[in-house]
Amino acid sequence: MKASRDESWDIWDEENSKGIDFAKVLQKIKAYWPLSLLGALIMTGLALLYLYKANPVYNVKAAVLIQDSEKKGSGKGNMLNSLQDLGLLNGASNVNNEQMVITSYPLIEEVVTDLQLHLQFFTHEKIRKQPVYKDDLPFKATITDFDLSSLSKKQKDDLTYTLTWDNSGYNIASENRTWKGNWGTPLLMPFGHLTLLPNNLTKNAASEKGFYFTVRPIGAAANNYANALTTEIPNKQTSIINLQLRTTLPRQGTDMLNALISAYQASTVDDNNQLNDSTLTFINERLSIVGKELDSIEIKIQGFKQQNRLTDLPMQSQALIDNMGKQDQELNAQSVQLSMVNSMMDYLVANRNNPRLIPASLVVNNPSISAAIDNYNRLLAQKERLQLSATDNNPVIQNIDEQLIGLQKKHFFRFGIH
Question: What are the domain boundaries of the chain?
Answer without folding.
Answer: 2-53, 119-215, 269-415
